[in-house]
Amino acid sequence: MKERSPMTRETIARGEPGAGNPGRLGAESPSTVASRGAETATAPAGGAWAGPAAGGAGGAGSAAGGYLPGERRLAMIGVLLSMFLGALDQTIVATAMPRVVEELHGLDRYAWVATAYLLATVVALPVFGRLNELLPGKWVFTTAASLFLAGSALCGLSPSMDALIAFRAFQGIGGGGLFATSITTIGLLYPPRERGRVQGVFAAVFGLSSVIGPWVGGLLTDHINWRWVFYVNMPVGVVALYFLLRHMPLLPPVRRSAFDLPGAVTMALWTVPLILACSWGGSAYPWSSPVIVGLLALAAVGLGLFIAVERRSPQPLFDLTLFANPTFRWSVLALLFFGGTFLGSVMFLPLYLVQVKGFSASNSGLALTPLTFGTMAGSLLAGQLATRSGRYKPMLLLSSMGSVVLFLVFHEVLRVDTPLWQVLVLMVLLGFVFGPSMPLYGMAVQNSVSRERLGTASSATQFFRQVGSTVAVALLGTVLSGALHDGMIRHLPPAYRAATQAVQMPAEGMAGGTDLEARVRQGFEAVLADVEKALRGDGQAYARLQADPRVPAALKESLPEGGVRAQVRQQVAGLKAALAAALQGDAGARQVLLANPALPASLRQLVEHPPADPAARQAALAAAEQALDGQVDAMAAQAEEQAIAQIRRAMEQQVDQAVATVRNAFNEAVTEALRQVYLYTAAMAVMGLFCLFFLPDEELKRSYAQGEAVPAPARQ
Predict the structure, then answer these.
(1) Which pLDDT score, from 0 to 100, does residue 297 have?
(2) Rounded Cα distance, 644 and 632, in Å
(3) Mean pLDDT across 258-272
(4) pLDDT at site 57
(5) Domain that holds residue 280
(6) 201 and 85: one domain?
(7) 528 C-beta neighbours (distance < 10 Å), count
(8) Three-state DSSP class for 43?
């Protein structure tokens, strides 16, 4: 059979038959061209994507199986908007959560709002990737977008925390579908050489969402209602659906087969317990607890079952033979480490900026703006360079080596007194070296697989990145917590260590800002409350203070057992005994009484000039004792209030000094802990770099391989 010549712009304009385009396209309107399907078969090798001069770099101006570039760009608007919503949701919701808990209650289930979404997203990624191969991509994408929007509406209507958690899981299914299908859609609509430019834009949009998400979330929560962080998805989502339904081609599925339900079930059987173990380990439960160990064991068993099921399945959910492809194998392994290093930076840098450098806690999300803008610039530049040069490995190597160097620089230069401008410059540079990895890994994988495996391979890149992020953040969080605890012990002076040990400062949530001064003051107030109770005679409060290692020894010694009233009564009893002895001629008792400056004048007069007559002395003693007994309650009350006021003044004088001391110790501990985290992150980046050395250095294809059919758009 004679090979047809490539279809170019000129071919379309003249209405001549081209590859995969037997009709006269020039006589038809763009909308008619976009809707052709039944009479448009498949394009032979390269024809559908080839530009002028048989597949030059001008492929952007070529038509894909009769699909004009203008229509393709309009379809990508819908894809971009959908991707933007999915990425925005990851940051906008966190800002509203304090208000959500305040209204719906359920603080003990706070973390489940994020965990439910994450679980559903990770499970949905490979499922939608596979569906994109079995069904027309247009309907898979619009289904994912519709699920996400429906979940958003339900979240906004949630009457309780349990309902919100359930609806977040439903929304996460759509979110996972958006991430899986958006990258695949780029591969369906653009030839390999052109994808760099488009995926660079996608990565930039993803970064932009992380910048504006916290700001928009705070604005909606403070000025309207927290429910609008979910409702805001609706108008943007409707616009996205319009572009998807109106302009996305109805590309036929690349292969038809049954859906692998056992594979999907066993996939969930190992991913769900793995994510739960990483989410709960070191926070809700110790890593050595039966719950975490059991979850990890279940994940291991589930992974074994998943591999066994997929190896026997004729049409597996996740084709394990993809690992025989060296580009796929080393790319997804590198992505495991890249996901951890990237999210590790995003998660823990705000802790330093908020706690040490004084960024506003309410704007902690904006603290990542320099890193995000660097990532956007790096993604856009890498995408353009990859499209022009046709190479991706050199940029990935430079990106990975740059991240290793910058993590080590962070480890060396990060100090409490490091100038803020240096930290911000390093953040921009770190974001810039991260940027190329955002689009290039996906490009490398898509370039190395056939269209029949495009959905599975594309979703796998997102899946492995997400799993790597989850596992790495859990491990780095454990490193941070341990280093922070050790640093506080090392830097906190012994004089304050016991008094402030009650102030718990866990690593979780510190990026959102912790009011350290308020927490230290609360610790002092709690101690002072028990001190007041003990001084008033509360035996339980006295016992708590004596048994509490956080209470200074000097304070314990100053507290009278039984309270001030009991102490005053004991003192009055001793005074009466000494007075009786003095009146009976005890010179020692007389000397002790006269040496007491607090001895009332009437008693001093009696001791100095006692009656000579024994009966008169006894009567005077009885009168003095009666007077003391009548005054003991008033004396005790006065002494009690004086003691409480004295201790309160002393503690208030110390609290400001304690706050400053503890804050300085905490800043040093945070800085040292983050330096430790960045050392571990550098090691992870080295492992990712090691994987990249084995990545084949393939040229990006200008078109699909010879003989590979490219489906043309069908009637919609």
Answers:
(1) 92
(2) 18
(3) 84
(4) 36
(5) 260-316
(6) yes
(7) 16
(8) strand
